[in-house]
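Exercise 3.2. Students should predict the tertiary structure of the chain below and write it as structure tokens, then compare their answer with the key that follows.

Predict this chain's 3D structure.
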Amino acid sequence: MRKILLLSTLLLSFSFANTLKVGASITPHAEILHFVKDKLKSEGIDLQIFEISDDVINNAKVDSGELDANYFQHEPFLLEFNKAKGTKLVKVASIHIEPMGVYSSKHKSFEPNDRAIISIPNDPTNESRALRIVESAGLIKLNDKEFVTPLDIVQNPKNLKFIELKDAQLPRSLSDVDYSLINSNFALQAGLSPATNSLYTENKYSNYANIVAVKKGKENDTKVLALIKALQSDDVKEFLKEKYKGAVIPAF
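Answer key:
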């Protein structure tokens, strides 16, 4: 009986040792993780995927050790989060880019009339990203700062008005505004195709690649390295191409 109990304990310990817990946004991050789950299983790793929509909770769970890693954010967001929350999370790999696009339910092109209303994300990094996209279209001029808000607009000849909202609320704002700048993951969740519905899209060589992040010190964890290898594979490249039709672009 003692040998059986000892064997059960060893098997249980092995099971826990080969479990990899990863937090992810539902679309497309969790979908991509599910695609590589069987590949990791064949290598003896049990990938457990936790779909978490709250960015703060997702990072906090990795910082506390409740999760081994997460996959939902870009590095500028992570660095700002660390600064604001005192967490010690680090990027281990870039996986894909979700181009931010301009959407509208009222207009056919991104040519705003005077005093047009535009909704943008309200977190520092994505708000800056959105405003830089509007600037790249020649509609406004911004201060040369790392993070900008509408208060940093120095030229606004059309008197455009910007409404700051939580990123998940942006698709729902389309009926109330002229335009909205929406990340591809939230556009996809709302049934919008970045490739066909967006009126203007940031350059595909954007610095805002979505990453896998871990707590500092766990960058070389063997299970994490196996996850990165699986995510940065030719199979995943093909999966992204076929499933997302340009809305999600490989960053490796």
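Discussion points: Residues 100 and 183 are 4 Å apart (CA to CA). The first helix runs from residue 2 to 17.
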